[in-house]
Amino acid sequence: MLIRRRLCGHALLATLLVGLGPDDPRDHAPITQRERLITAAEPPPAHRVDAPGIENLFRLGPGLYSGAQPEGRQGFESLKQLGVKTILSVDGAWPEVEQARRLGMRYVHLPVGYDGIAQDQVVRLVKTVRSLPGPLFIHCHHGKHRGPTAAALGVMAAEGWSRGQARTWLEQAGTDPKYKGLYATVDQFVTPSAEELQRVGHDDLPDHAQVPGLVASMVRIDLCWDRLTAAQKFGFRSPPGPPELDPVHEATLLAEQFREAARHEETTERGDEFTRLMTDTNRDAARLEAAIQGVQTTASPANKQEAETSLIRMRRHCAACHARFRD
Q1: N or C: which end of the chain has fewer CB atoms below 10 A?
Q2: φ/ψ (deg, to 5) at 48
Q3: Are strands 64-67 and 106-109 parallel, antiparallel or unpaired?
């Protein structure tokens, strides 16, 4: 009798949890602390996958993967071997559509920011997950913040994950809690109605989306930054092994991107504080460029020290700018 009562109790709990599905009005309310504790107790079925050319790759379900931007042909070949039919990028960078198309995969480009995902973009994202051929791969640049958030919405809409499971997935993927807007997007997710999804046409799911000029500059800055961080570990000289990395070239590109960004019309439109931060970072980028050039031409420790100092100052400026204008 005791066993039977326990089984009935478990069955009732399961029924209550299943009842919080997409069509249940309670699913449209922000997640409560109690619900988070209950649902987070059961971790989401996300499993890390090792595949050449793709970092932070996870399988969230039979029809959905999340990870970083595919690197070169090898990354796209890995997706092909996984059976992926559709690639959804939420990054600002221009997708490699032709690379995917040659391997029989379709790209959809729906860029989002670090401050959260707007409702119209949420509807397009869910439409992509529900209507286009799968398996589907969702990515941002690093596969840690924006991509996992978009993937969380996808599995909530298509696989029935609860909000608590989705939050646990963000933590598993490494989504930084400082991006409160991304976590809020998951906590406040409302499954789009059939009418909303029906209004999304083919043109609303482009393979290339128009990205604002300043955002595009920041994407290129991010790429240069990653490469210079890798070179820093080797004293700002080229790391061994392919692909060959030229620190001087990357520093030049970085300085140029900041020079362009500091003069951009969108920079002045964001106000004096944003302009000042961009100007300060632009100045440090020029110093970093000169110091790394000096590292390549002389063995003076002063050049390496100046490069380290400039990079530290730039990190501080970037962190202050992100905290004020992006996070």
Answers
A1: N
A2: -70, 140
A3: unpaired
